[in-house]
Design a protein that fits this description.
78 residues; alpha+beta; two-stranded antiparallel ribbon; two-stranded antiparallel sheet; binds zinc ion
């Protein structure tokens, strides 16, 4: 009976260890996703010189020192 209790304890330890690893891995993934989202949220917003709409700097069109939300507004202002 002592042997059975020993192996049951070993099995329980392995089970708990796997659970712990899975949880810590999920937490790491969630933290990475949060970091990525934080970078996106901190992206600079620029105002279109034509219509005044704010667009993320990665989507904005630059024409000299002026910023536009789309090529139509850039062409309309040129
Ligand atoms: Zn615009």
């Amino acid at each position: 009976m002592g042997k059975l209790a020993f192996w049951a304890a070993v099995g329980a330890l392995i089970y708990v260890g796997m659970k712990f690893l899975a949880v810590s891995q999920r937490r790491g993934d969630a933290a990475k996703r949060r970091d990525a989202a934080g970078r996106n949220n901190s992206e600079k917003m620029l105002q279109c010189a034509h219509c005044g709409v704010h667009v993320p700097s990665s989507e904005a069109l630059l024409s000299g020192s002026r910023v536009y939300c789309c090529s139509a507004h850039r062409d309309a202002d040129a």
